[in-house]
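To: structure desk
From: M.T.
Subject: fold request, one chain
Message: Could you run this one when you get a chance? Sequence is below, nothing fancy, just the single chain.
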Amino acid sequence: MNAIGGPVAAWARASGTDGLRWLKRAARLAPDDPRIALDLALKCLEAAPREAEEALAALAVIHDVAAIWLGLALARQRNGDDSGAAVALSALLERHCITPASGFTALADRIARQAGYGGWQGMTEAGAMLRRGGGTMLGAPDLKILHRVEGVVEVTKAGLAGWAARPAALARPALFLHDATGRKQPIRLGAKLQADATAPFLRRYRFRLDWDSLRALAPPFRISGPDGAPLSGSPADPAVLLLPPVAAKTRGTPPGAIPAKRPLCVVVPVYRGLQATKACLNALFGAVSRRTKIIVVDDASPEPALAAWLDERATARRIVLLRHDVNAGFPAAANAGIEAAGECDVLLLNSDTLVPPGAVAALRRVAYAQADTGSVTPFSNAAAILSYPRPGGGHPPPDLAETIRLDRLARRANQAGSVEIPTGIGFCLYLRHDALRAAGLFRAELFTQGYGEENDWCLRARQAGFTHRAATGAYVAHIGGVSFGAEAAGLQRRNLRLLERLYPGYRRLVTAHIEADPLRPARARLDAQRLVATQNGRDSVLVITHNHGGGVARQEAAERQTWRARGYRPLLLRPQLPEHPDRTPYPWPTMLSDADEDETNLIFSLPRQKPALLRLLRRLHVTKIVLHHTLGHDDSVRDLAAALGLKQTIIIHDYASFCPRVNLLAPTAGDNPRYCGEPDDAGCAACCASDPDGLVTSLPAPDLRARHEKAFAAAADLIAPSADAARRIVRHFPRARPQVTPWEDLRLPAPRPPARGFRRIAVIGGIGPAKGLHVLRACAQDAAARRLGLEFTVIGCSADDAALLAAGVFVTGPYREGEAAALLAETRPDLAFLPSIWPETWCFALSEAWAAGLHAVVFDLGAQAERIRATGHGLCLPLGLPPARINDVLCRWQPMEKKAGAF
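Reply: Done. Structure tokens follow.
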């Protein structure tokens, strides 16, 4: 989006008198930016404290930030929740430094008193303890957290570089360098870094130390805060620069034979997360026999409850417990466990995994199926290239029961299958004993606190002749991110750069795997198995639709509820939208999914894979087919019903059956489309020739009609949502008999008359050229030029927000289904203007306007005009009316007592 219409521009305008609406626009444009969400919540504190509390509470679950806790305390205090306000203030006082300004002091006094405390206590950024009152105090400052410094350091050709931050304070932290002899010197911090998406509220400061300044000191170098705790990436040793690079694609000579099997030891490094660790080990106890040695390495956990629980398990002889006095990082902890395992195979597990029964045996089968297998990794919800269902991860972790189910389905779908991968994934990594012997331990001295150490090991094993495989018949759940915290992204970037330096071409190796996606067939088989397993004897209805949202998506989603109520299982068949549609050959592959799921690996290239699609549809008992739209699909999708021996229902959403542009709009020289008037074949051919790039199909209009005439004749039903749409279909298909079935049954009272004088005009929906973008812009420009009392607001988004904003039209930003009513209520419009210039088949925006109590002004064509005439709830204008005349109407029009007619 043009920067002038983007979220940053909207956020920047939030300081003005109408800042709240700009903040809300920014939040809609960037719904995942917590900084905007925080500003919006704080802005709402005065007028909508309940709404503010809800937003702040959601932010506090993810972000431990002083401003969030303070805002939440204030919101709860205003909402009468004294104990909740005290909880929020206590979180602030415990983990964040305070500024003893009068406003804060008065608020803290009031909250403490109202919650029954004698006073409160906290620590300033300078380290001074501040206490107010006496007796039972609110707040228990955690000095370790309040003084903690975090950050990342890495070795570069120029010296040491990185960043540091003190999460509990805004000021620059104190940072120190320690050399191998114990010498210590302060580090001067530089400029503040821009906010990072992974730590948006953290104030991070750069530092750089060139090699000349370190010449008198002995490496390796440890970087720490005042408490001595090392930054991620520390200790940093310049010796890494001397390691000779080896191309990532380098392969050694593979082993000649499968080795004798060795016993298995499971190694689980543990640092934080009592509940996750308990769940992990309890699941593991049920997944392996008691003969399997489970080695747990407590890497100096800061959680006493976790350490005590591990002691209990060790006393009960369920685990072998190793404990570090000082936190050494995941690679060193893993090495301690691997060394304790001796000559065994090792299953290296994160402490936030859930291993189901049968998965370990599946990994072991793959490990010994081929001579050159060095490591094996299962599918998981969060496992980079081994994530399922979507490659790349980001899926919420399933519970143990669902993990067991998915693992069993994976085995049923893929049996003992495996696929070579460029690197194993460390969350659950089966390491064969001979590969361990050849490649050695993880290089903790290089990868310090973790991330990338398993990739380095896999590349070294590759040089020794071993390969790494995905066990496609196994699934292990992974929570992810328990131990890393805010430094994760920086540490990952640091170690990825290190991997690329050590193994040039590593990124290309992984990227090539991702692009080739050899795991997709295995994921697809698992998808199919999941669908079949959840069929439960139902018949299915196949809904064929496009993937562009809008009214089609809204209607087919409503229909799905009806199909479910009738006992059917709705399945969706949609085209796979490419990342770059303009550069991707058309038509696109077809995706099959359960209607309730967004993710699917069931992707078919038609017509080549049509037989496979038909076999799966028969397994899923498809007995009905509803064809909503074929945009993006291969033409052969139209014949699926006949191939299955079914008659399909065809839904009319537009005019793709006879218009190569779909919406009956002809291009003009000024890039301002107009209604074509539905000319004869010669006129249609001339329109198509004038702008061939704007065509949805290359078929000439006569051939297009012939194809759809045959489809309409073979259909079980042909349904149009309005009489206008049905008449247009019959005009071009005289034998067609469309059934008129309105999409909605709106029985609403008459809208309120618009106010006299100044008027707010609402334009609802996604506004592109077909929806009257150019008309709206021209109207806004005319209103500004003549200083009319009109204010235009798009309730939604547009194809060119920047142009509309520049013309004086406010654009709220995109909204989710069901939010239009609230946006309209906030905007308080007097009248709706729907400047669509094509004959719509229904027009959901008109329904939104009426539901908000608004009369609507539309152009005199399509279902929009038909519905206005039938209800009298608005006015129909001649299509092509000049902007000045449209504005005159918008300024003065009032509904008549009887039904309104045309203008």
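Reply (cont.): The longest helix spans residues 550-565. Let me know if you need anything else for the meeting.
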